[in-house]
Amino acid sequence: MKTIFVLTDFSDRAASAAEYALNVAIKSNANLLLLHAMELAAQITPGVEFTWPMADYNHVKNESVHELKALAHRLEVIAQENGNFVPAITYLTEFGFLDEVAQKTISEKNPDMVIIGAHKSSGISRLLFGSHTNTLLDKISCPVLLVPENLKFKGIKQISYATDLTFNNLKVVNYLADFAKPLDAGIAVNHIYSPAYPVTDAEQNIWFSLKEHMKLNHPRIAYRTITGENVKSTLQQITTSGLVDVLALVHKRYDFFDRIFHASISKQLAHTAIIPLLVLPYSFSMDVPDMTNEELDQLCFDNESSR
Question: What is the CATH number of the domain that holds 229?
Answer without folding.
Answer: 3.40.50.620
